[in-house]
Design goal:
The longest helix has 18 residues. The chain is built from five helices and ten strands, in the order E-E-E-E-E-H-H-H-H-E-E-E-H-E-E. Helix 1 crosses helix 3. The protein is α+β, with helices and mostly antiparallel strands. About 5% of the residues have low confidence. It folds into two domains: about 130 residues, no CATH class; about 60 residues, no CATH class. The two termini are about 25 Å apart. The radius of gyration is 17 Å and the shape is globular.
């Protein structure tokens, strides 16, 4: 299972570079978010504390998650970090990946918090992901290599870099810093920078 992220973070008063993937190897769990950058590590810590393992998270997240953004937002103003105090409730997307002991396979899921008036994807519903998923979304023909095998590591890296470069061309103010690949298997989690970006 692979999660590919950039490292560009926009704060109210500046920009910086961060890892956008929370790793909880004891579950094992990978969490990447879109929205408020602090959501990755704050919600990641909450999920790590609330669930003993990945299967428990999959079974219980839809029930617990509606309260987590409220707890998260209460933490933000109390954090003592001035930049967080002025932020509005985030419309945060969570991308989760882990190893299911019960089903003996890697699995990925998506869940969204935020504006319930936005019809799709429905907030607070856990959605299974069985293909390439994420955003900002771009047509596959703009970046997917037709001659790479899906199971080939070189092909994967090529396609992830091509996707991120295409996203960066389309959205230069929000994509950048570096391209980080996080890979989860039954027994390990690895992270590496595929490319630094200007």
């Amino acid at each position: 299972m692979h999660i590919c992220t950039d490292g560009f973070c926009i704060l109210p008063d500046r920009t910086c570079l961060v890892s956008k993937v929370h790793v909880a190897p004891h579950m094992p769990l990978l969490l990447a978010t879109r929205g408020l950058a602090a959501a990755t590590w704050m919600l990641g810590a909450m999920l790590s504390q609330a669930f003993a393992g990945f299967d428990e998270l999959v079974d219980g997240l839809a029930d617990q998650f509606p309260n987590m953004p409220t707890r998260f937002l209460k933490c933000v103003p109390d954090s003592g970090i001035p930049a967080f105090c002025e932020m509005q409730p985030p419309d945060t997307e969570l991308y989760l990946a882990g190893w299911s002991v019960a089903r003996q396979q890697c699995e990925a899921y998506f869940i969204r918090a935020g504006d319930e008036r936005r019809e799709y994807p429905h907030p607070f519903r856990l959605i299974s992901i069985d293909c390439l998923f994420g955003g900002p979304r771009l047509p596959m023909e703009t970046w997917l290599s037709p001659d790479c095998d899906d199971n080939d590591d070189d092909g994967l890296e090529h396609d992830m870099l091509a996707l991120m470069e295409a996203q960066r061309r389309e959205y230069p103010k929000i994509i950048g810093g570096f391209c980080q690949l996080t890979t989860l298997t039954q027994h390990s989690v690895t992270q590496r920078i595929l490319r630094a970006m200007d």
